[in-house]
Recover the amino acids of this structure.
């Protein structure tokens, strides 16, 4: 999907895709030949519950799991734990989403769900990526906005890029305030590198959002 980022789709060997809610994560288990877990790590589910497979969007960082995952071939078998987690979309009609990098995984699940359900309201997604080539789900984000005009997506690039007419620089209070008036009235979902997520939470609180209206998941 982008340099060092792959999208993986898994279908059950038998039975149905397990029940989950947009925003849930599941442990991915890489197995040895006997089917025993060699390594497991949590990954947010990027698909939405109406899709016939589980999708994950994973940055290949050459670690214990990702180093092995790179070698997984099409048709390979993995183990997937029961989905869970607290950052699930609460079906609000006014929601704000903020993500950086692969932090888009649980957010794209929520946006796919919102579009599939034809939900009306105000859904604004602020997405931070390094360069244009690092914008994950770029084409789909455009399609989701066309399909559902209640969805607005604002991408900001943190590195200079020619022929980019959009926002540049790190996400900040000024940008959020400009596009999400009355930020305090939204339910917010934040996901990405822990430092960024904490900074974004502080911005939202300064803009009048109560901490109980912010759900966040940081990693990396
Ligand atoms: C709730 C949750 C959801 C998540 N969802 C996602 C998601 O959707 N997508 C995603 O990409 N990640 C996600 N993560 C992160 C994921 O769980 C892993 O932490 C990540 O993929 C790294 O796992 P790993 O085993 O490959 O790296 P680890 O082996 O755990 O290594 C961690 C870091 O150390 C570095 N490292 C490892 N070995 C070496 C070495 N020999 N030399 C130098 N550096 C080294 C790696 O580069 C890596 O940056 C999520 C985490 C959480 C908690």
């Amino acid at each position: 999907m982008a340099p060092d980022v792959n999208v993986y789709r898994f279908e059950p060997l038998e039975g149905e895709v397990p029940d989950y809610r947009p925003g849930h994560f599941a442990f991915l288990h890489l197995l040895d030949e006997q089917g025993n877990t060699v390594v497991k790590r949590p990954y947010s589910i990027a698909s939405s519950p109406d899709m016939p497979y589980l999708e994950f969007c994973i940055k290949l960082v050459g670690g214990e799991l990702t180093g092995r995952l790179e070698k997984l071939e099409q048709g390979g078998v993995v183990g997937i734990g029961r989905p869970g987690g607290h950052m699930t979309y609460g079906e609000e009609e006014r929601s704000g989403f903020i993500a950086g990098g692969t932090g888009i995984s649980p957010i794209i699940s929520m946006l796919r769900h919102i579009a599939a359900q034809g939900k009306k309201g105000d859904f604004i997604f602020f997405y931070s990526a390094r360069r244009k080539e690092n914008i994950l789900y770029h084409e789909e984000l455009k399609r989701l906005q066309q399909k559902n005009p209640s969805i607005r997506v604002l991408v900001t690039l943190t590195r200079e890029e020619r022929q980019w007419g959009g926002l540049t620089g790190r996400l900040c209070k000024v940008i959020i305030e400009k596009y999400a008036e009355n930020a305090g009235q939204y339910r917010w979902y934040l996901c990405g590198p822990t430092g960024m997520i904490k900074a974004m939470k502080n911005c939202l609180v300064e803009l009048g959002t109560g901490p109980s209206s912010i759900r966040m998941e940081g990693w990396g």
